[in-house]
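Design job #97: recover the sequence.
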């Protein structure tokens, strides 16, 4: 509003200021023109002309008076009157008077004493006459005319005669007197104006200034009124806009007129109405979207598969929690997972991300990929299925994947079990006849051969028997691996007692054995025979790993754990080769010169059948660790 008031005031005052400046300029010039030098010279010339005429008349009167005074000085007093009368008649003098030395009237010619001008002042005039012997003056009469006075000191030529004073009065002609009076009056007025010129300028300047200030005040008042009338709707609109910006869409402006401001208020009200409707619609849509997202999130969280959603640029945008868990990242965020998948290194997740990008970029709308992802818990097999999203939904890709490691392992175990079963069946049948035939040949031929040949036959027979026994052990292992887990009811097994019993069979390990078996452990539900076999296999592997060590050490620990009871067996042997870490539990995987590689496979099969888990790893500086966790449960 202040700017509007200032604008209106300037619009009104600026033209007035221009008029004010022009008026002051012209007024100053006009006043100065009144006092033009030529006018002043003309007035001075007229005044000089009038004064010259009067001075000439006065000079003539003065000379005549001087002549008469000389004449009277030589005449006796009795002839003075006649002489004065003659002078009055001859020269046209109005009056002639003769006074004594003290100013007393002796005689008057040409008019009564009452018609004379002012009486001679005694003291000043007499003093002047005694000093100058004559005196002239121009005096104003009561009728407004001018009278010429010439006074002379008359010194008689006769000795002893008293001095006389001669006074001559001559009126100035009426025309000359009138003109001189006018010139004198004009000159006086001109001089008055000249003296009042500065004040006149100040008076007019002050008047114009007051007029300008009054106009400015009136303009300010009018500007305030107009600005208030114009700014009130704008201020109302500003408050409404601020309220809308603050989220209050219920604001309605009052239209005080039907002009543009009223139309603006109506448009604003229409806008807020549309905004209210749009916000209500948006709230409904957001509610529906939130419900849909909640439903979708619930579905994603309850899916048994991992879900990854990529945009058109193949950047990860969202995922479900199971995807992070399936990829072994704990509680990583979507951004962290996206960074790992897009990393430029050769980490397992970066390799997976590169494979996904290749599939999303090069394959069609639907594709399937099996990917092996290395990890600390071993290699996992992921089955990934991808699909392209519709452009109406924003485009992009969705990838659903499952961890089929257990399925693949189960299929592999079934295949190996079938192979083991057939091998056991095919090998077991001829083993007994082979052994019996070898023993029968030795029995039949020993007495018929020489001692050397008999010794050779004995060694050959022992070799056949030993190899048959070894093959029987292998067939037994095959049978154990192929045999399904017992379907008999589980019983409560005291793992501490069972472990003590098994360790008693390994007396040769006592010097290097360190036991840490907790007391008061709860029982687990299981099959004692199968669990005993698990302990045997683990301890046998550890014992074999210690061969060739100068200071062998074996540690067996049985302690309570969060998920049940944990058995940990560690040795300081050579450890597991890195190349076999991911497939150590597969059948026929071994580093021993002798062995079937079924020990750990059987261990995992039995432990998982009991609801537990088994993990392997290496320890520093060298050695291996096998950790078995079995859940605590009641017998069934």
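Job complete. Output follows.
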């Amino acid at each position: 509003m202040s700017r509007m008031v200032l604008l209106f005031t300037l619009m009104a005052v600026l033209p007035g200021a221009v008029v004010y400046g022009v008026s002051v300029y012209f007024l100053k010039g006009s006043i100065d023109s009144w006092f033009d030098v030529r006018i002043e010279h003309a007035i001075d010339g007229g005044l000089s002309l009038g004064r010259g005429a009067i001075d000439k008349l006065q000079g003539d009167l003065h000379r005549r008076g001087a002549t008469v005074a000389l004449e009277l000085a030589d005449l006796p007093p009795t002839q003075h009157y006649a002489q004065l009368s003659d002078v009055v008649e001859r020269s046209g003098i109005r009056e002639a008077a003769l006074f004594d030395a003290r100013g007393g009237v002796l005689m008057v010619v040409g008019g009564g004493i009452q018609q004379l001008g002012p009486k001679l002042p005694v003291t000043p005039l007499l003093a002047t006459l005694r000093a100058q012997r004559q005196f002239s003056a121009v005096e104003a009469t009561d009728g407004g005319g001018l009278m010429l006075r010439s006074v002379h000191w008359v010194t008689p030529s006769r000795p002893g005669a008293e001095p006389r004073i001669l006074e001559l009065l001559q009126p100035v002609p009426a025309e000359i007197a009138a003109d001189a009076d006018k010139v004198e009056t004009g000159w006086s007025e001109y001089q008055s104006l000249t003296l009042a010129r500065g004040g006149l300028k100040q008076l007019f300047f002050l008047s114009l200034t007051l007029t300008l200030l009054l106009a400015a005040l009136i303009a300010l008042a009018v500007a305030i009124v107009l600005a208030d009338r114009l700014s009130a709707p704008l201020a109302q609109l500003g408050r409404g806009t601020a309220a809308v910006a603050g989220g209050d869409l219920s604001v309605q402006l009052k239209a005080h007129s039907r002009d543009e401001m009223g139309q603006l208020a109506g448009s604003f009200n229409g806008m807020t109405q549309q905004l209210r409707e749009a916000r209500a619609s948006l709230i409904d849509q957001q509610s529906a979207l939130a419900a849909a997202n909640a439903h979708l999130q619930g579905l994603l969280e309850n899916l048994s598969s991992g879900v990854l959603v990529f945009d058109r640029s193949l950047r990860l945008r969202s995922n479900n929690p199971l995807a992070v868990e399936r990829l072994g990242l704990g509680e990583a965020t979507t951004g962290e997972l996206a960074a790992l998948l897009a990393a430029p290194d050769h980490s397992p997740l970066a390799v997976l991300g590169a494979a996904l990008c290749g599939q999303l970029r090069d394959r069609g709308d639907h594709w399937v990929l099996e990917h092996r992802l290395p990890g600390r818990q071993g290699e996992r097999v992921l089955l990934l299925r991808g699909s392209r999203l519709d452009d109406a939904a924003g485009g992009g890709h969705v990838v659903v994947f499952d961890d089929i490691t257990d399925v693949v392992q189960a299929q592999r175990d079934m295949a190996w079990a079938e192979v083991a079963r057939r091998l056991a069946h095919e090998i077991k049948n001829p083993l007994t006849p082979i052994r019996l035939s070898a023993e029968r040949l030795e029995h039949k031929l020993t007495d018929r051969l020489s001692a050397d040949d008999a010794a050779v036959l004995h060694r050959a027979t022992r070799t056949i028997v030993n190899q048959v026994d070894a093959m029987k052990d292998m067939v037994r292992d095959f049978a154990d691996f192929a045999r399904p887990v017992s379907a008999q009811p589980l019983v409560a097994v005291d793992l501490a007692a069972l472990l003590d019993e098994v360790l008693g069979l390994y007396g040769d390990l006592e010097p290097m054995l360190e036991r840490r078996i907790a007391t008061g452990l709860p029982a687990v539900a299981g099959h004692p025979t199968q669990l005993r076999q698990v302990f045997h296999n683990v301890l046998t592997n550890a014992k074999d790993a210690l061969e060739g060590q100068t200071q062998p050490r074996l540690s067996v620990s049985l302690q309570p754990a969060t998920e049940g009871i944990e058995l940990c067996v560690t040795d300081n042997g050579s450890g597991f080769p890195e190349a076999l870490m991911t497939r150590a539990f597969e059948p026929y995987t071994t580093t021993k010169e002798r062995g079937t590689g079924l020990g750990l496979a059987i261990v995992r099969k039995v432990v998982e059948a009991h609801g537990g888990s088994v993990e392997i790893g290496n320890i520093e500086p060298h050695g291996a660790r096998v950790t078995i966790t079995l859940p605590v449960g009641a017998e069934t």
